[in-house]
Every structure is written in structure tokens, then in C-alpha cells.
């Protein structure tokens, strides 16, 4: 993973946030290639979950939400992690994670008193990771919601306007709007990609646990108790999507939750086998019954029941949720694709990305940069292709070096314009170029007129 992280910085995929000021824990920026990969992942997700379906629509809700939303969702009371501070160096530790390191499981539902008792029993085995001391403050529940100071909403309760702790609440808030203004009928789904913010106690593991991140969520609304078939369909589709990104079965697995929250009927996570970190969650697929809409109906006083257009029956739909961390999937895709191999007797780094995800689809090279006829012809090809796909121009260094640079960022094709293209090798090769394949290094001649179709 250290290698993947260093690579991400070196080739402009991911930079530490506010780096010139020394960086911020758990905050990252995506660079020029990173943003292309990120957008391609989101586009693939959106096409699969919205465009290719008749029973799903998308929305984009605002970041700022009425403070009462987080009371209704349970976040103001229950969205916390157990925290202790080292009395010597003030390092903050997440109690459940530290206990796990010495083989002790802290149940998510434990009270503060029980957690303190458990911590007191085992803390002698746990040295502060920063300074090695063994002296800690008592365990307290640390709420993960991030406050803002937008406006004055205190008249609506005691809470400030929080940044979203999870993006999906925006979908529940618009359920009624979508029913009232579109022709969607239960069963149907709403999809959204949105930002979430969490005051993680110890952000770590690069993009895996950050304080600002994106979530891609779907909420599928069904008639009460008609959840099983849809849940199985959704699980199968979500797994298939990861396969379509080029992730192998051996690095992907399902994990069922042992301890369900009280309202949930079933919950599974999709886990990816990250280098160094091992298997961990990238997406949750949850069968949430009518909890979310009931909570918002009670807290807002707005009737969120759905009326069956055929029978007139009124009910609160049950919800099947998928919630994916886009940054975690980005890291999974990058880890999966990052490969070192040998080609033509030379060691290289190659990103074996699915072409759909590659930041650059093709690179265009004039064989020599000091031959104006070659450069002019290559520019023609480049200009033609750039309206169809993200392509890159490179005339710097020998062709082998240019290939290596593109292999590293996962460009599927390199296109070289040479003297044969200009017609010097005879009529049969005139207006053809060399197309070189990233994975095999194989080269073939392709007519310029056929390049666009080949890239498509
Ligand atoms: P974890 O147990 O790892 O903290 P979670 O169960 O709290 O995650 P959910 O609330 O179910 O996560 O959020 C759905 C998805 O959002 C997760 O599967 C994960 O991919 C992503 N996610 C959650 N927290 C973070 C974070 N701090 N940084 C990056 N992605 C996150």
C-alpha cells in the first residue's frame, strides 16, 4: 500500500489536502489523473444504477439540511465512536479499534459504563501508539457529526446545522417530492452521489478512512414485507458491478453483520482485500424496513405514506439501501490495477485499469518532434480524437519512455505517427498509424479513419 500511495502522489492521482501548509489529517485532494478516474467510477455507477434502469431515478440534494434531520436519523444521539485520550501526549485513540488489536471485541451497542469497564480490564496491554505511555482519560462517546455555523436555526431545536454525516438522508427528504412529481411507482429506487463528513477520531489508511468523502447511495422503496426478492437482486447486481470494474473474485467478499441495529432486517457488507490493510468494507447493502421514512414522518409532521394507485392502500414503504464509499472504491480499483511486470526485458509499472475507467483513453505521439510533417499529421489525429475521448499528446523522449509513462497511468492505447503514415513506406501503409496495446505491448497498423471507432 505504501507503494500505491507514493505512486498516487507521484503521478498526480491523489495529493494530501492543504499540503503546502503541512497537510490535514484525513483530508485528500484528487489530482489531474485522479479526478478522471474518480469521475469514471462515478459515471459507471450512475449508468448502471440510473441510466440503464427504468425503475430508478437520480437526485442531487443540498449539503445543508434542517438540524432536525439528524435527530430523526438518530445521528445527534447515536452517531459516535468511543474515545480515550493519552494523558501524557494527548493522542486520541478509538477504543474499539485499540481493543481489537489485543483480540477484544467491543460491541457497537455497549453503554459508556460497560465500555469503561472493558477498557479498564485491558488497557494495561495497550500502549499509546504515539508515546508508549499507559495513562488514559475515561472512555467517552465522541459524536462524529461536523458542525457548521450556517444561519440561526436554534429556534428549531438545540442543534447547529451539521454537515451530512451520511449523504443518503437527502434521498429520504425528497421521497415525497419524487413520488408527487414523477411517474415512479413503488417498487422504485432513488440514487444519489453526495458528500459526507465525519469527525473520525483517527483518520488512517489513506483514502480508506477520511474526514470528508463521497458516498454513492441507492434507496429502493418496496411494499412492506416485499423485500426479499429485491434484496437478492440488489446484492447480485452490486457484486456484478465490482466485477465489471475489473475487480477479481478473490479480492471481493460478502460479510453479513452479526449485530443488526434494532430496525434492520438484514445487512451485508461488500469487502475488498486491500494490500496491507486486508479485507475491509467498501459498501453496505442494508434491508432497513420502514425505519427511515417513519422517523422523518414523526419528526417533520409530514405524511410520508405512499398511496397505492391501484388499491388506494396507504403504507410507509420499506427501504433497501446500498451505500458505497467512492474513495474506498477508488483505492480498491487503483490497488487492483497497480501491477509490476516485465515487458521486452524491461521492468515496468502498469495500471491494468478497465478501459472504461482509464483517465486517458489514448496517447498520440509523433515519432520525432523535430520533423514538422510528422508533428502536423500527429496534431491532426490528436485533434480528431480529442472530441471523442480524453487523449494526451506526448512528443518528449524516445518512444519506449513515452510508452512507460502511459502504462503507469493505465492508458489502453498509444498511437504513433511515423514516416509510413506520411506515405514513405508505400501506398498500403499511408494514413495508417501504429497502435500499441498497454497490456500485451502488441502493435498493429490501423487506418486513421478507423481510430475513432476503435476507441469507442
Ligand atoms: P466503518 O465501519 O468503516 O466506519 P461505516 O459502517 O460507518 O464504515 P457506513 O456508515 O455504512 O460506513 O457508510 C457507507 C460507506 O461509506 C462505507 O461502506 C464506506 O465505503 C464509506 N465510508 C464510511 N466512512 C468513511 C470514511 N471515514 N472514509 C471514507 N469512506 C467512508
What's a quick, concise take on this entry?
The protein has 456 residues and is an alpha+beta fold. 30% of the residues lie in helices and 25% in strands.
Structural account:
By secondary structure, the protein is of the alpha+beta class. The chain has 14 helices and 21 strands. A seven-stranded mixed β-sheet has the order 3-7-8-14-11-10-9, with helices on both faces. The protein has a five-stranded mixed β-sheet with strand order 18-17-19-20-21, with helices on both faces. It has a three-stranded antiparallel β-sheet with strand order 5-4-6. Helix 2 (32-51) crosses helix 11 (326-337). It starts with a helix and ends with a helix. The mean pLDDT is 95. Adenosine-5'-triphosphate (ATP) binds at residues 166, 198, 200, 209-210, 213, 215, 281-284, 323-325, 327-328.
Counted by DSSP, the helix tally is 14
Percent of residues in helices? 25-40%
Biggest sheet strand order reads: 3-7-8-14-11-10-9
Bound molecules: adenosine-5'-triphosphate
Overall structural class, as computed from helix and strand content, comes to alpha+beta
What composes the largest sheet?
A: 7 strands, mixed
Give the overall average pLDDT: 95
Instruction: Tell me the total number of β-strands.
Output: 21
Query: How far is it from the N-terminal to the C-terminal residue, by CA?
Result: 33 Å
Shape: globular
Rg over CA atoms, rounded to whole Å, is: 26 Å
Beta-strand percentage range: 25-35%
Uncertain stretches: none
